[in-house]
Design goal:
With about 500 residues, the chain is of the alpha+beta class. It has three domains: about 80 residues, 2-Layer Sandwich (Dihydrodipicolinate Reductase, domain 2); about 220 residues, no CATH class; about 70 residues. It contains eight helices and 27 strands. Strands 5, 6, 7, 8, 9 and 10 form a six-stranded mixed β-sheet that branches. Strands 23-24-25-26-27 form a five-stranded antiparallel β-sheet. The chain has a four-stranded mixed β-sheet with strand order 1-2-3-4, covered by helices on one side. β11 and β12 form a beta hairpin. α1 packs across α2. The chain is elongated. The termini are far apart.
Length: about 500
């Protein structure tokens, strides 16, 4: 039993220390020591170790007490000093309930699922600064092992440990770990420089106050000596020279006392946590009864969903017919096409106030307000859209035209009627469509849009007045006259 424990220990320790191991047999291993560890093994680069006693001089029989085993234990212990390992797993599953809550009326499907691993070091550095007083502080840093980028650690150790699972993190490159730790120490040094600058500014103020106090005191003593009030029995000049030297020496002492140097700053990593982030990523297809959209989700981040109308992150959400993600309360159903849209496309018919979308809406040429399909018609003269209530009656031809074309009581068709000198094919077609045979000798004619007006006259009086619709190819209004232009 002990043999198997020893063999497993050797293999795991070598793997951790990045020492290459080749199994020759169940009882024999070939060990290749990397260059940077050769000095630890007395300069030996290769070992053939045996787990059973052997007479082969090239093979080393080892036990748990052997030099090789003890050296491995020492190196592993040194590298593990203050170092912890943790796995931080961020599965997609924890986001499923959130998506279901946010989209209660939708169905969804996970697409393109994958896991992405990234390794980080969490390093806590103790910085000690020997100034006028000893200042110490502890600060954490986070460094990406792959990129070497260092940022201040914002999370507490307790929170990291709660979120993770303690487990070995293997497969890490020693060179990248060393570089990552070096980058942390560089950043910690910069942080210490900023702290020293802050302390230096504070101590400079204190030093300046102390120098002012010393100057004030010695200025008083010098003034007294100049007045001949010395208490030491010296000549005033001699006494003043002594006071000036004392002041300079005292100020110099204070400058030394308040000064700081780089040699007085010590940075020491006190704890290192090796963390492997295992983050699941996926694309989620979300289907509503109206439309669908794709949402990228990451296991280490909350579901990033917000309403395009209000910006709110609170659901319930849905997907519109034009595939826009929006809050349900900011949607409407177009009464013409029965499709679901967000409120940015909302218009209301001027006549019935029903909600209509941009595609089903028609703007009135008169008021420039929206009209639904049920309540917009085209003026027969300008052929533009308008509401029925926006038409005015022409008192001459008894036809309704939009307020733009007929702002008063006489339409532009009737205003523009003028004599003609010849019969065209369309006039002939109109004459044939008149129920009673005509005896008119003279005609007056006007044409605008879809409408034609034709007035027939005898020698003295009007005979008929016709409104003809070109689109429908029919007479829509006919008036007949008798003697003295009286309507029949």
């Amino acid at each position: 039993m002990e043999f198997f424990k020893l063999k497993d220990y050797i293999k795991e320790s070598c793997l951790y220390l990045e020492i290459d191991v080749l199994m020759i047999s169940d009882h024999l291993m070939h060990i290749m020591i990397p260059q940077h560890l050769k000095n630890e093994f007395s300069g030996i680069g290769e070992y053939q170790i045996s787990f059973i006693k052997t007479s082969n001089p090239k093979q080393t029989y080892i036990t748990f007490e052997s030099f090789f085993t003890q050296k491995l234990a020492k190196l592993v212990a040194e590298q593990n000093h203050g170092v912890g390992h943790i796995l931080l797993q961020h599965p997609i599953e924890r986001l499923v309930d959130d998506i279901t809550t946010k989209f209660p009326s939708c169905e969804f499907e996970l697409l393109n699922e994958e896991s992405i691993n990234s390794d980080k070091l969490y390093v806590w550095c103790k910085t000690t600064i020997h100034g006028q007083l000893i200042e110490e502080y502890l600060k954490g840093f986070q460094v990406d092992v792959e990129t070497g980028v260092v940022i201040p650690l914002l999370e507490s150790l307790e929170k990291i440990l709660i979120e993770g699972t303690t487990a070995p993190v293997d497969g890490l490159s020693r060179e990248k770990l060393d570089l990552a730790l070096s980058n942390v120490l560089t950043e910690a040094s910069k942080d210490a420089e900023r702290f020293v600058d802050k302390i230096t500014k504070q101590t400079n103020i204190q030093l300046l106050n102390e120098i002012n106090r010393i100057n004030d005191y010695y200025d008083t003593l010098i003034a007294d000596n100049q007045a001949g009030e010395t208490s030491k029995g010296n000549e005033p000049k001699t006494e003043i020279d002594l006071l000036l030297k004392e002041r300079a020496a005292l100020i110099h002492q204070q400058e030394i006392k308040f000064s700081m140097s780089e040699s007085e700053v010590m940075i020491e990593p006190v704890a290192i946590l090796v963390a492997r982030n295992i983050v699941e990523h996926a694309t989620v297809r979300i289907d509503s009864k109206a439309g669908h959209t794709l949402l990228n989700v990451h296991g280490d981040k909350p579901v990033d969903v917000h309403c395009l109308i209000s910006g709110s992150t609170e659901g319930p959400f849905t997907i519109s017919s034009d595939h826009v993600l929006v809050s349900e309360k900011h949607t409407f159903v177009c009464m013409t096409c029965n499709k679901l849209f967000d409120d940015r496309k909302l218009n209301k018919c001027k006549v019935c106030t029903d909600p209509i979308c941009l595609s089903c809406m028609t703007l009135s040429s008169v008021t420039k307000l929206p009209l639904c399909n049920s309540h917009h018609i085209n003026c027969h003269i300008c052929l533009q859209a308008c509401a029925e209530e926006e038409q005015h009656l022409c008192t001459n031809c008894n036809q309704f035209y939009c307020g733009n074309c007929n702002p008063g009581s006489l339409c532009p068709l009737c205003k523009s009627i003028a004599p003609i000198s010849s019969i065209t094919p369309i006039i002939q077609r109109i004459l044939k469509a008149i129920p009673n045979p005509t005896k008119s000798k003279k005609f007056e004619y006007a044409e605008k849009g879809n409408r034609i007006v034709l007035l027939g006259k005898g020698l003295l009086f009007k005979e008929f007045f016709v409104i003809y619709d070109k689109k429908d190819d029919r007479i829509v209004e006919i008036q007949e006259f008798g003697m003295f232009n009286k309507k029949k």
